[in-house]
Amino acid sequence: MTKKEKIYSSRDFGSGFKVDNYPWGFKLKTQVRYWIETHPKKGDRFCKRTLNPKTMEWCKVKKSTYAAVMVMTLEKKDGKSFVSYDSLNRGYSDAVAVAKFEKSINKDYMLKDQLKQICACKAINQVNKNLKVEFVNSTAWTDEERAAHKKKQAEVNGKLAAYTNKLYGSCLVKNNLVEKG
């Protein structure tokens, strides 16, 4: 098994990880650049841009969907380089996945926004651990019953949001990620 090397320095096209000898069709070879784009609220996405070997112009950037946080990986196998990424998603990556991801990265090379996203994943997981989902048949409810249920749900959602924000804030403070202003 080959080990994946983490790449932290590729943040935009200019600093993107360059791979030569990338296939273009059946016969041609070209260059490709990979990087991770970080948005403070949306998270990270994996970007790729190839050089058209016929026109020598860079093609349009191909971007993945957003994940909470990503780290680019490089795996060398049989003389070839494979660039990919490891990622976390809010609400989908469980506590084990978050712990495994944290253990595999060097936080010193992560952006502050990425570390905040890890805190968000941890807070959501902690809340979800205690969450109970109940299905109810509301087809025969009166308007009053429906309004009462909606009001109760809004109250519960408010408490969940407050608890999640408290856990998130605690994680930010613990990891020294709070801006003083």
Task: Report on this structure.
With about 180 residues, this protein is α+β, with helices and mostly antiparallel strands. Helices cover about 35% and strands about 30% of the residues. It has helices at about 95-105, 110-130, 145-175; strands at about 5, 15-25, 30-40, 45-50, 55-60, 60-65, 70-75, 80-90. β2 (about 15-25) and β3 form a beta hairpin.
Order of SSEs: EEEEEEEEHHH
Low-confidence residue ranges? none
Helix count, DSSP H or I runs of 4 or more residues: 3
Which of globular, elongated, flat, extended, rod-shaped describes the shape? Answer: elongated
**Biggest pleated sheet:** 5 strands, antiparallel
Radius of gyration: 22 Å
Strand content: 25-35%
Structural class: alpha+beta
Global mean pLDDT: 93
C-alpha termini separation: 48 Å
- Range of helix content: 25-40%
- What is the β-strand count? 8
